[in-house]
Design goal:
The chain is α+β, with helices and mostly antiparallel strands. The protein has 2 domains: 33-42 and 57-216, no CATH class; 232-361, no CATH class. It has 8 helices and 12 strands. The strands form 4 sheets. Strands 3-4-5-6 form a 4-stranded mixed sheet, with helices on one face. It has a 4-stranded mixed sheet with strand order 9-10-11-12, covered by helices on one side. Strands 1-2 form a two-stranded antiparallel sheet. β10, α7 and β11 (337-342) form a beta-alpha-beta unit. α1 runs antiparallel to α8 (363-376). Residues 28-82 have low confidence and may be disordered.
């Protein structure tokens, strides 16, 4: 890309305005979250006796999920201490992209009691929340003005959603709402199951047929549509990570496979890329194949064909693709790290590119990567 001096100045000015807008959005999100997004419950729903400990062990409403004051899912003790000192905590918020894929994003939010409920409130459609989601290239999943009452007792989260839950546009929107809530709540170690009430009442299904009866546990995210000829009872799931249409965002996808659902299979499937009907992008270069995969002392050693080095031609130097590879590999128990070989030779992709991330997506990283990518265009000349 070639710029004249005047064009370069205009580009820099536009980039500066973008950074200022992002800073304003962050401030708005921190300090201007509408209190109407969630309502305080006058009565705490009482979980079934078979699912709860004795009454004296019942935690307080809202603060129940953080009795020790640390509710950050998948965060190291060092990161937790740093966040606490800054008056913030990390929590995983579930958004959706333009195609309806659910996307987990770790966000830093003000520390407060009842962080699980506060996390859900960030997923409710509002001006501030929509701005936060938009700067990530994503969208909120819960309807505007929806009230949320939450009680967590003995590993069971009972959530009472307002009547707005009955007004979703279609079955896909209903399903995303329910799945996103379950995934967000089960990020917390104190939540194993989720039970739903709608406007204070138990319901079997929502208007478009989405099941809300019984108790929900963490499920496979974004399952691929399988062919009608496939017998799913004979298949096993593996999770793959592919870049989405939003800048620097990885989307977890569940694929059913017939071979052993291990790291070998997962890496081969990652090389195949997303399904033909998917708008997601390939994580690895076209034509890249797997020669072999071995595991030694918790390190997966993956030997790729020569096409792998084409990753370096990506605008980010292949960092997002490498992150997708690490996440795909480390889903398996005992895998703690990844080494890459190309045609049998050890390949060094650069410092920290193979580090295990705390979450598939981190809000600050997404914004920083976007700014860096756009800034680099200023200095690209023929």
């Amino acid at each position: 890309m070639k710029f004249t001096g005047k064009e370069r100045k205009m580009y820099v000015l536009a980039l500066a305005l973008l950074v200022a807008a992002i800073a304003l959005a962050c401030t708005w999100t921190m300090w201007d979250r509408p209190s109407s997004q969630t309502s305080q419950s006058a009565e705490t729903p009482t979980p079934a006796p078979s699912e709860t400990p004795a009454p004296e062990a019942t935690p307080a409403l809202e603060g129940a999920e953080t009795p020790e004051g640390s509710a950050e899912p998948d965060v190291s003790p060092e990161a937790t201490a740093q966040s606490a000192e800054a008056g913030t905590v990390n929590t995983v918020v579930y958004y959706q992209d333009n195609y309806g894929y659910l996307v987990p994003v770790m966000c830093s939010v003000p520390a407060e009691d009842g962080i699980a409920k506060a996390t859900l409130s960030l997923m409710v459609k509002s001006t501030a929340n929509d701005m936060q989601a938009a700067r990530l290239g994503l969208r909120t999943v819960l309807p505007e003005n929806m009230s949320i009452d939450l009680d967590i007792t003995g590993g069971l989260a009972r959530i009472d959603l307002g009547e707005e839950a009955l007004s979703m546009a279609d079955a896909a929107a209903e399903s995303n709402m329910i799945t996103a809530i379950v995934q967000a709540l089960t990020e917390f170690p104190t939540v194993e199951k989720v039970e739903f009430l709608i406007d204070g009442q138990h319901m079997e299904t929502l208007p478009h047929g989405t099941d809300v009866s019984g108790q929900f546990t963490r499920a496979d995210l974004n399952p691929e549509l399988a062919s009608a000829s496939i017998a799913l009872e004979d298949a096993e799931p593996v999770t793959l990570y592919f870049p989405g249409d939003a800048s620097s965002v990885l989307v977890p996808v569940t694929r059913m496979v017939y071979s052993e659902p291990d790291i070998n299979t997962a890496v081969v499937e990652l090389c195949k890329g997303p399904s033909a009907s998917s708008p997601l992008e390939n994580a690895l270069p076209a034509g890249c194949g797997v020669i072999d995969v071995t595991v030694e002392d918790g390190i997966a050693k993956i030997n790729f064909t020569g096409e792998f080095i084409e990753l370096a031609e990506n605008s980010d130097g292949g960092r997002l693709a490498l992150k997708a590879l690490v996440l795909t590999c480390t889903q398996f128990e005992g895998i703690e790290g990844v080494e890459i070989y190309v045609d049998g030779e050890l390949y060094d992709p650069g410092a920290d590119t193979l580090a295990l991330p705390a979450c598939a997506n981190v809000a600050d990283d997404i914004v920083d990567n976007y700014i860096q990518t756009q800034s680099s265009l200023i200095f690209e000349f023929e």
